[in-house]
Write a structure and sequence with these properties.
This protein is of the alpha/beta class and 407 residues long. The protein is 40% helix and 17% strand. α8 links the parallel β8 and β9.
Length: 407
């Protein structure tokens, strides 16, 4: 079956934009994805016809908003194949989800000398919270190395697991390299030693199917805006027993069962971790986004993006002076590269004038840049609404930059 990309491009209003008089070529999907009209409509409809707070009201609008909000939680549960909606916590994004685990799971029980293992390819959001926890508790952060292809060195990772390891927190798909980590093996090795695992799935959810029960991960996090949903909404999945054992991350309304000046009794899952008024419209929008992905067909999205990645790799590799950063055999549709003689920021400015949006910089992975001895990279990250022709336009814009800089 041929994937009809033009059919689905019509669902995204942003794709009709022009930049400097030229059709927009949007290749910055790892930073954030465009939103289909159905997601925009879901958010707009809530504000236009259903604005109300959730859980606390008995009037019509509150009940309607609560039903829509909790329905989105059910959609997320089904999308991840979690056992129950009690395991689905709404947060502001993957970053807050990781911080929640650090402070609610790690801080009460980790002590001086305990160890946390991450990898060299982590996003800052999966580095800094653990560094903060180490400062608070005296535990030790250990880094699993990568090789020149951008792959995790699995044997070295395994050697880092000791009787003092209290948590492994690992990215599923690298945002700056595209590397798809062997997360099943990582979890298996950790669990054989009784070590829980957090999976940073921010990039993974838009690139491949995720089944948290099959993975058997203890925690899984992602952000809605990486998978065609609104910003400001994310998810923490956690195994129910672990979440029940953890104290609340924040205090306030809705996370309580009862409050007196003597004592507060906390609410049940998932509300124990959702203090205050939540991002109601954003959660509804996330539910619409996940439904949209299911409608398109994740299997078709995955196969089509493999075609795009292969085409992009071929044409970029053919450009003199281009060096791809991240060449792991198992890779998502992310193309990071440097161009000899031109700084990535200058390259990004030139291609922007041609209507092409790419990301330039360290992509919140400065240790990765240090490993490859580059100050930054240019990154073209692809979604299923991109086309091979757009990648050809990117290549032409790179040649244009080479002409301007005589590179």
């Amino acid at each position: 079956m041929t994937f009809d990309v033009q059919k689905f491009r019509k669902d995204f209003p942003n794709l009709s934009l022009k930049v400097y008089g030229k059709p927009l070529v949007y290749l910055d999907n790892a930073a954030t994805t465009f939103k289909p009209q159905c997601v925009i409509d879901a958010v707009s409809d809530h504000y236009a016809q259903g604005t109300s707070n959730v859980h606390r009201g008995v009037h019509y609008l509150s009940e309607r908003a609560t039903i829509a909000f909790e329905h989105s939680r059910q959609i997320v549960q089904q999308f991840l194949n979690a056992k129950t909606t009690q395991e689905i916590i709404f947060t502001r994004g993957a970053t807050e989800s990781i911080n929640l685990v650090a402070q609610s799971f790690g801080r009460p029980s980790f002590k001086a000398g305990d160890e946390i293992v991450i990898s060299h390819m982590e996003h800052h959001s999966n580095i800094v919270p653990w560094q903060m926890l180490c400062q608070q508790t005296g535990c030790i952060l250990k880094i699993a190395p990568i090789n020149e292809k951008g792959e995790l060195i699995l044997d070295e990772f395994i050697r880092l697991l000791t009787s003092r390891t209290r948590l492994v927190s690992m990215v599923y798909v690298s945002n700056s390299l595209g590397t798809v980590n062997p997360i099943n093996l990582i979890i298996k090795e950790a669990h054989e030693r009784g070590i829980p695992v957090l999976v940073d799935g921010a990039q993974a959810v838009a690139h491949q199917a995720v089944d948290v029960q099959a993975l058997d991960c203890d925690f899984f996090v992602f952000s809605g805006h990486k998978i065609f949903g609104p910003t400001g909404i994310g998810v923490l999945y956690g195994k129910q027993k672990l979440l029940e054992s953890m104290p609340p991350y924040q205090g306030g309304g809705d996370m309580i069962a009862s409050v007196s000046f003597v004592k507060t009794a906390y609410n049940v899952l998932p509300y124990k971790f959702e203090a205050g008024t939540p991002a109601i419209a954003e959660a509804i929008g996330l539910g619409a986004a996940l439904n949209y992905v299911q409608k398109v067909g994740l299997e078709f999205i995955i196969d089509y993006k493999k075609e795009l990645l292969a085409h992009g790799t071929k044409i970029l590799s053919s450009i003199p002076g281009v060096r791809l950063i991240g060449t792991a055999p198992e890779k998502a549709a992310i193309l990071s590269f440097v161009l000899e003689g031109i700084h990535p920021h200058d390259l990004g400015t030139i291609v922007d004038q041609e209507g092409v949006a790419i990301r330039t910089g360290h992509h919140c992975t400065q240790p990765v840049m240090d490993f490859f001895k580059v100050p930054a990279t240019a990154r073209a990250s692809l979604s299923f609404y991109n086309t091979k022709e757009e990648l050809n336009i990117l290549a032409k814009s790179i040649y244009r930059a080479k002409e301007i800089f005589h590179a």
